């Protein structure tokens, strides 16, 4: 497919550090928000034009989408980290084999998962705690979006490998165009033509197909060190790739499980209006996660390539850039949540119980913004060094283990909404442990490099 014989100089290891970081982060933020923006766009449009019940219905499926996205993210990030190290060391053929194997598994795996979930959609909706009154509404939405799962999986893998191959801006451009298609179709079908919830699913499907087609075209045309090199991928090699991306999988799957638990608790205490009210908070958290992930993914790409090139000092510089930007971004979102949450809640829901619940939830959840970015960048540092154990520990702590512990403890507290404090407490405790791991690693490096 890609026949270019000579690849350009690799900016990740040769270009000025600050300019390189800025270029990669800009493309990563735009691309990742575009890649996962369909959930936010659909939710906002559905909530605005179809009401709280439809919004609750869409959000009850989010744990499933998080699980499915986590699977391909584990493969794409794990494989791209390995390929990135090969590229940094100049082994382009080996990197191309990793790319080809990852892309093939993504396409086949996405098609198989879509077929299985489509066949088992009724028990899956029951598992997601979807009320019977909403199942009729959700079913067509679910089946339409599943039709785009395989193209979405292919697009995710292409996006991550194009980034490590030195084409982050072209990859992001393809995703942005797909996201714009999603927004335009949502506005036309929901806002102007007043279609039902199936319109949001159709907009998502068309956006996924558009992104996949544009990314395939980018790979064919753009000059890069990767090429199409069909090769068999053994289960052992697949496991190695996935091990490098296991922290991202843990982050995604754990977030889905915690969201499912929160939906269950909210439904018990406040009904469908509580679930709808938390949906607005969840979209803000999703935006925060996407910005933090965009920064973290740049860190692990640049750290892994410079590690492969033996440039440890440069790798540490990129880590510091990532931490500084993540902390600053989190502080900005925290401030915005305090200044605009009340007005946003009432504008979105136009009154009603859902607006009241959303306004009450904001102050409890807002501290999450202060810690998430730093945790994800620390996890990405260990991912870039191919230390999946430490990276997964951070991911598991912040997104599953500690939230479950705090949810269990705080659910029996008598204060209103007290169980929601589990999320900021888990992030804060994880940050303390992650900083300790980083300090231990730095101390070990100093001991190993000190002259005897």
UniProtKB/TrEMBL annotation:
Segments passing through the bilayer: 21-41, 61-86, 98-121, 141-162, 174-193, 199-220, 241-266, 272-296, 317-341, 361-381, 393-413, 419-437
InterPro entries per UniProt: MATE_fam, MATE_MepA_subfamily
Keywords: Cell membrane, Membrane, Transmembrane, Transmembrane helix
Location within or outside the cell: Cell membrane
Biological source species: Gilvimarinus japonicus
Protein's name according to its UniProt entry: MATE family efflux transporter
Annotated membrane topology: Multi-pass membrane protein
Pfam families referenced in this protein's UniProt entry, alphabetically: MatE
């Amino acid at each position: 497919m890609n026949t270019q014989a000579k690849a350009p100089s690799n900016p990740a290891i040769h270009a000025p550090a600050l300019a390189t970081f800025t270029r990669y982060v800009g493309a990563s933020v735009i691309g990742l928000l575009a890649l996962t923006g369909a959930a936010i766009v659909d939710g906002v449009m559905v909530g605005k034009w179809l009401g709280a019940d439809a919004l609750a219905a869409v959000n009850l499926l989010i744990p499933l989408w998080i699980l499915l996205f986590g699977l391909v993210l584990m493969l794409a990030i794990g494989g791209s980290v390995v390929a990135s190290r090969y590229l940094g060391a100049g082994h382009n053929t080996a990197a191309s084999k990793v790319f080809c194997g990852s892309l093939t598994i993504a396409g086949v795996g996405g098609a198989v998962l879509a077929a299985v979930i489509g066949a088992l959609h009724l028990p899956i909706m029951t598992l997601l705690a979807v009320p019977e009154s909403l199942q009729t509404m959700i079913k067509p939405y679910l089946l339409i979006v599943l039709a785009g799962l395989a193209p979405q999986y292919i697009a995710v893998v292409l996006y991550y490998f194009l980034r490590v191959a030195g084409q982050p801006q072209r990859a992001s451009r393809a995703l942005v165009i797909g996201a714009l298609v999603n927004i335009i179709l949502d506005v036309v079908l929901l806002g102007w033509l007043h279609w039902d919830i199936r319109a949001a699913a159709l907009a998502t499907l068309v956006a996924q197909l558009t992104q996949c087609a544009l990314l395939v075209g980018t790979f064919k045309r753009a000059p890069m060190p990767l090429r199409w090199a069909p090769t068999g991928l053994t289960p052992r090699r697949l496991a190695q790739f996935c091990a490098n991306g296991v922290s991202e999988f843990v982050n995604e799957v754990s977030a889905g499980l915690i969201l499912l638990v929160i939906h269950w608790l909210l439904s018990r205490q406040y009904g469908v209006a509580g679930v709808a009210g938390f949906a607005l908070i969840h979209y803000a958290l999703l935006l925060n996660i996407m910005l933090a992930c965009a920064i973290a993914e740049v860190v692990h790409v640049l750290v892994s390539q410079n590690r492969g090139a033996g440039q440890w000092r440069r790798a540490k510089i990129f880590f510091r850039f990532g931490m500084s930007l993540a902390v600053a971004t989190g502080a900005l979102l925290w401030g915005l949540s305090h200044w605009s949450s009340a007005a946003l809640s009432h504008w979105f829901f136009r009154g009603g119980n859902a607006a009241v619940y959303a306004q009450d939830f904001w102050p409890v959840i807002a501290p999450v913004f202060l810690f998430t970015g730093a945790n994800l960048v620390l996890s990405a540092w260990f991912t870039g060094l191919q230390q999946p154990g430490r990276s997964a520990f951070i991911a598991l702590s912040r997104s599953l283990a500690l939230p479950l512990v705090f949810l269990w403890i705080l659910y029996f507290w008598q204060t209103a909404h007290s169980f929601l404090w589990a999320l900021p407490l888990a992030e804060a405790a994880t940050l303390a442990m992650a900083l300790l791991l980083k300090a231990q690693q730095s101390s070990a490096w100093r001991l190993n490099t000190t002259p005897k």
